[in-house]
From TrEMBL:
Protein name from the UniProt record: Glucose-6-phosphate isomerase
Alphabetical list of Gene3D superfamilies matching this protein: 1.10.1390.10, Glucose-6-phosphate isomerase like protein, domain 1
GO BP annotation list: gluconeogenesis; glucose 6-phosphate metabolic process; glycolytic process
Pathway the protein acts in: Carbohydrate biosynthesis; gluconeogenesis; Carbohydrate degradation; glycolysis; D-glyceraldehyde 3-phosphate and glycerone phosphate from D-glucose: step 2/4
UniProt keyword terms in alphabetical order: Cytoplasm, Gluconeogenesis, Glycolysis, Isomerase
């Protein structure tokens, strides 16, 4: 269906027209109950969306979109294990990865025995490393773990490993290598001891160029250090949906941990792909992460739309994108531990919903995912926030903070939170010319004041939401990630696209394969375009 033809869409458009003359200052002044009606809380997460350009009548209208798009039907199809990823003929069952009991999704299609058995094997493996009982080829315990993967096989676990480093086992180093650029792997290898290093090759397909080349290089380095191919079996494990390829690589079967084709790469951190994380934080903390996500799954599946965090978050994103015309969304964590959260969300959102063709193969009638970008908020304040405040562009923001510090130092947390709250308030309410004038009066000549005044005005009306967590523990993080996952799903349903395929990443891979041999062999460059040929010629001249 074309959602822009729906009754709900038209009603929302009329609502937008009536609301658009109102500045956030006026919206706050008009409704003293605004914050109560435009905020939700769930399991230690306060979601304040009162600084969005909506009023108390907006959500019921927006929820009409979810109904017209048959969100409930699609949700039940996903949770029921139907092949809603139609272009790849796959079910979408990452929610199974955080469930604690069989059967799921149905008694006849129960994936839980495999899921639970793999989780148990992972726990035993992780405990072996953590306790020092799992020994390397020379009999020394493993002290360093290197996860080799990219995209969903890197971003989620790496983001969480950094977020949860305060609860990670000291003395056990866990590293993440993704880039083809040897400047990532080579310096790391210089710091490692082959006798005490374990490589986890994380790749759903076990064919990804970056991962396979890094894994091969790591294997060569290991063999150079230990001098025996038998060492591979003690120093490599694989996390993959293609176990036979891992075994062919030389990894012993007991060290191959499966995932399944019903887990999308960007939704795979809950699966065996999370093994490096489990080694770092331990099986108990990993179980708490899953439990937090499972609680969010239940909330998503059962709460009424207007009290449902993922649904509300999705609807607000649609309001900003499709009705206010925002083209990007900034993610601004005021929490050092969430340093990698923006890049994790970039894949989750843009690889899922960065599409202009619907599930039915027809062009979408409206814009889909905005550009997701972001950075640690406190650092961003001193870099790009200028544009958010006075650049004249609409950039909705997600502020994310935790009340309690992971590493408390006197005065830091209060100052950090004050800055977080100050930025969203300043962006929303700005500063009028009259306010700026009264601040400047008496401090300079009237002529100087008039010259400076336009620069001191902040238009405000920049919409934002704040996600305030009690603390960044595994359970709350699990819920936070599941919240964004379901937001992505809801938006995909409303836009009428398939959030679970990623055909757009294929072309670049194929072109790279045709260019690679032409770097060494100029004759192979002939069919390539003129720009690529020139780049190759320059490269050949200087590659050394
Ligand atoms: O190229 C994109 C992609 O397929 C992502 O969807 C995926 O997370 C990543 O590459 C890595 O894939 P794999 O886990 O199969 O190596």
């Amino acid at each position: 269906m074309n959602i822009t033809n729906s009754v709900a869409w038209k009603a929302i458009e009329a609502h937008r027209q009536s609301l658009s003359p109102l500045h956030l200052r006026e919206l706050f002044a008009r409704d003293p109950g605004r914050v109560a009606s435009l905020s939700l809380s769930f399991d230690g997460i306060l979601y304040d969306f009162s600084k969005q350009r909506i009023d108390s009548t907006s959500l019921p209208l927006l929820a009409g979109l979810a109904r017209e798009a048959q969100l409930e039907h699609w949700t039940e199809r996903m949770f029921g294990g139907e092949q809603i990823n139609a272009s790849e003929g796959r079910s979408v069952l990452h929610v199974a990865l955080r469930r604690s009991r069989s059967p799921f999704p149905t008694a006849s299609l129960d994936v839980m025995p495999d899921v639970l058995a793999t989780r148990q094997r992972m726990a035993a493996f992780a405990e072996g490393i953590r306790s020092g009982k799992a020994l390397g080829f020379t009999g020394l315990p493993i002290r360093s773990v290197v996860n080799i993967g990219i995209g969903g096989s890197d971003l989620g676990p790496k983001m969480l490993a950094y977020a949860l480093r305060s609860v990670s086992q000291p003395g056990l180093d866990v590293h993440y290598v993704s880039n083809l650029d040897s400047a990532q792997l080579a310096p790391l290898l210089q710091t490692l001891d082959a006798r005490t290093t374990l490589f986890l090759v994380a790749s759903k397909t076990f064919t990804t160029q970056e991962t396979m080349l890094n894994a091969q290089t790591a294997r060569d380095w290991l063999l150079a250090g230990l001098g025996d191919t038998a060492a591979v079996s003690r120093h490599f494990a694989a996390l993959t949906a293609k176990p036979e390829r891992a075994v062919q690589f030389g990894i012993r079967e007991e060290a191959v941990f499966p995932l399944w084709d019903w887990v999308g790469g960007r939704f795979s951190l809950w699966s065996a792909v999370g093994l490096a994380l489990m080694i770092a934080i331990g099986p108990q903390a990993f179980a708490e992460l899953l439990a937090g996500a499972e609680r969010m799954d239940e909330h998503f599946r059962s709460a009424p739309y207007e009290r449902n965090l993922p649904v509300v978050m999705a609807l607000i994103g649609i309001w900003n994108t499709n009705f206010l015309g925002a083209t990007s969304n900034a993610v601004l964590p005021y929490n050092e531990s969430l340093k990698y959260f923006p890049s994790f969300l970039q894949q989750l959102e843009m690889e899922s919903n960065g599409k202009a063709v619907g599930s039915d193969g027809q062009p979408l009638a409206c814009a889909s995912n905005p550009i997701v970008w972001g950075e640690l908020g406190n650092n961003g304040q001193h870099a790009f926030f200028q544009l958010l405040h006075q650049g004249g562009r609409l950039v909705p923001c997600d502020f994310i903070a935790a009340v309690r510090a992971d590493y408390p130092l006197p005065g830091h947390q209060e100052a950090l939170l004050a800055n977080c709250f100050a930025q969203s308030a300043a962006l929303a309410f700005g500063k009028t010319a009259a306010e700026a004038r009264s601040e400047l009066e008496g401090t300079m000549s009237p002529a100087a004041l008039e010259a400076l005044l336009p620069h001191k005005v902040f238009p405000g009306n920049q919409p934002s939401s704040t996600l305030l967590l009690t603390r960044l523990d595994p359970q709350t993080l699990g819920a936070l990630i599941a919240l964004y996952e379901h937001k992505v799903f809801v938006q995909g349903v409303i836009w009428g696209l398939n959030s679970f395929d990623q055909w757009g990443v294929e072309l670049g891979k194929a072109v790279a394969n045709s260019i690679l041999p032409a770097i060494g062999n100029p004759a192979l460059a002939a069919p390539l375009d003129a720009s690529t040929q020139a780049l190759l010629a320059f490269t050949r001249q200087h590659i050394g």
